[in-house]
Amino acid sequence: MEQRERTHYEKKAIASFMVDGKRQLTPTLMFNLMQEVAVNHADLLGVGWNFLHKVNQFWALSRMDVEILRMPEWQEQVEIFTWPKKANFLVQPRDYQIETLDGEVLVRSTSNWVILDDNGKPQQLSAYEDNLGIQEGLHSIEAPASRLRTGVPCENPVFKPVVYSNIDMNRHANNSAYVTWVMDSFDNEFHDTHRLSFLAINYLQQTHADDRYVVMKQETAPDDFLCSIYSEKNLVEVCRVRTVWK
Fold first, then answer.
1. Total domain count for the chain?
2. Is 201 part of a structural domain of the chain?
């Protein structure tokens, strides 16, 4: 990547447990890898989990857009780049790019993060602005992460439990768990014949270990799906996802 000195990047090898039946990186593990690189970068900047935990705060992902040109494959080595962009009061944009070691761009992404306290209240970023490592004018995706304005109605829901493997160290469902739930709403035959090319996700509320969820899905255009994830508690929509396939 050009201007790599302005970014944080880590080299990753795509292991067998990260791939699907086509030996390609799964969307869930892609999210996990990007999230881990961002967590490591925040630690290096001095505003990571350990620092915020001392003041009863934590980073939370609110939106993310991902453009997939080609999924990394089993045994391929890639570099994952990330950098924060200019914050606006409560929201810290952060971009990502996944490339081969030869510089082929595989994945582009942009995201919005906020700092929440233990009660879920957003915190102003001005107190941390000297440590955010903001890069002006450097974009993987220049447009802001998408706001998905409409959802899918919750009709005849069949709820599933939030399970142990979904929970992160903040005791909420991990960001990538929602991706897993959406990917699992498409059957194996669909995955065999389609390739994910774009995903936009909006996190609306947190989900916890004692909750149950359902994915509602609607095809809004050919191979373009809108999904809403609902919590059984008060039938609240907790996440909204758009996926585009080829």
1. 2
2. yes
User: pLDDT of the chain along its 246 residues, tens only?
Assistant: 666 667 899 999 999 999 999 999 999 999 999 999 999 999 998 888 888 888 899 899 999 999 999 999 999 999 999 999 988 889 999 999 999 999 999 999 999 999 998 888 888 887 777 777 778 889 999 999 999 999 999 999 999 999 999 998 878 899 999 999 999 999 999 999 999 999 999 999 999 998 999 999 999 999 999 999 999 998 999 999 999 999
Residue 63, SS3 per DSSP: strand
Assign residue 237 the CATH number of its domain: 3.10.129.10
- 121 lies in the same domain as 9: yes
- Are residues 73 and 15 both part of a single domain? yes
Q: Considering the domain boundaries, does residue 108 fall inside one?
A: yes
**What pTM did the predictor assign?**
0.93
Q: Is residue 146 part of a domain?
A: no
Torsion, CA 149, CA 204, CA 26, CA 94, rounded to 10: 90
